[in-house]
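Predict structure. Chain length: 133.
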Amino acid sequence: MFPQLPFALSGPRIRLEPLSIEHAEGLWAAADDEVFAKLPYNRPLTVQAMSEWSCAALSREAVRLPFAVVVGREVAGTTSYWYPDEVRRQVEIGSTLPGRSWWESTRRPNGRPALPDSHRRHHRTPQHPGTHR
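Prediction complete.
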């Protein structure tokens, strides 16, 4: 089970805030048709429909913890923690949807995502041969 209290993760440029319907307008503006083109569902057609999409994401509280990705005061997209495993103390990260204007800017020059330090510190990815940290 996820923590009962909402929490945010902050880095120098990006903040992950618990997703709420208040993020719907910014998320709808960030995620245009091209963003949704490779997803298994269509882009919500209105801000109201994006609010409903957000409510659906929030309704899966036992298996999903959705976040709004915020840069400054602008919603840049969304991401989620899925399937908490209390024994292994891990989660899966998915349903990441960056707005198209953020496709290049959410990466650092070394090609690594610019996720908040608190996120990287607690959620390490395996080292693969030929990669450098």
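Summary: The first helix runs from residue 24 to 30.
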